Amino acid sequence: MRLWRKLMIGLARSESITGFMHGSRLMNRFSRQFVGGGNALEGVQRADELRKRGISASMFVLGEYEDTEERVRSMVSDLEEVFPLLREAGLDQHVSVDPTQIGSMLSWESCRENAVRLGEEMAGHASGRCTALMVDMEDASVTAPTLDLYAALKDMGLPVAVTVQAYLHRSREDIENLVQGGAMVRLVKGAFAEDGSVALTSRKDIDERYRELLGVLFSDQARESGVYPVIGSHDHRMIEHAVKLADERGWSREQWEVEMLLGVRPQYQSELVRQGVSLRAYLPYGRKWWPYSVRRIGENPRNLWFVGRSVFGV
Known about the structure:
The protein has 314 residues and is an alpha/beta fold. It has helices spanning 2-13, 15-22, 25-31, 40-52, 69-89, 108-124, 143-155, 171-180, 203-217, 220-225, 236-248, 266-274, 289-299, 304-312, and strands at residues 55-61, 94-97, 132-135, 160-165, 184-188, 228-232, 257-261, 279-285. An eight-stranded parallel sheet has the order 1-8-7-6-5-4-3-2. Helix 12 links the parallel strand 7 and strand 8.
C-alpha cells in the first residue's frame, strides 16, 4: 500500500502529467466524480444540493504547494470569495485549508497571517449551524507547526478546527492535548506514505489506533470540555464504532459528525443520513482537479472503480 501511495503522490505532483490530464475531455468527466464545480459559485450550488439531501459541506479550493507570494495571494483571494456566497445561501461557513495553500512553503509566519485573515473574515460572515476554518494535516514533517498554527488561531478566539492523522505515533498525545482545549477535531487514518519511525504501517494496527483515539474523543472529559469530534472516514467499521461509542456515552447526534469525501460511497452516505447521523461532505472545487483526484485513488485503490464508472459510464 505504501508503494501505491508513493506512486499516486508522484503522479499528483508531476506538472507534465497534471497539464495533460487537465487538457483531457475524457478525464474531465472523471473529475466530476470527486469535484463539486469549477469555481466558488458552482461549489456553493453543489453544497446547496447536498443540503437538500441532509448533508453539510466543508468547502475546499483545489490547489496546494503554492511556493510563490503571487500564487499564495491568489489562493487566499480564491478562499475569501466563497464566504459571502455561503452566507447568502445560508450554508455553514465551513472551509478546509492546507497550510501549503496559504504560505507555509514561504514561511510559517506568512501562513499564520493568512490564516488569521481568513478566520477573521469567516467569523464576519458566520452563517449556518457550524462555522470553522478546518486546518488540514499534511505530511508528518509539518505536524508540529500545523498544530502550532491551530493553537495560535484558537488562542485568538477564531473559529478554527484541526485534523489529526491516527497512524502517527505522536497522535495519542496530540489528541489528549486537543481534548483538554475543547477542540473541534477531524480524525482521519492518514494517507501519506510515512516511514515506520513516525507512523504505523499495517492496516490492522492503524485500525486499532483509530478505535483507541475514538475512545479519547468520545470520553466524558472530551464532552465536558466541549470537544466536537469529526469522524473523517469511509470505513463503515470505524463509523459504526463511533456511533456505538457516542450512543453508549450519552453524546447527542448534534455533538459530533462524520465527514466523507464527495463522490465516495454515495449510497452509504445516504444511508447514514437516514440513520440520523450528522454527515458532512468534503467538497473540493476549482480547476486544479488532477492532483486532488489522483490522491483519492492513492488513499484507496478501490476508488479506481469510481474512475471507470465516471469515464466510461458503467
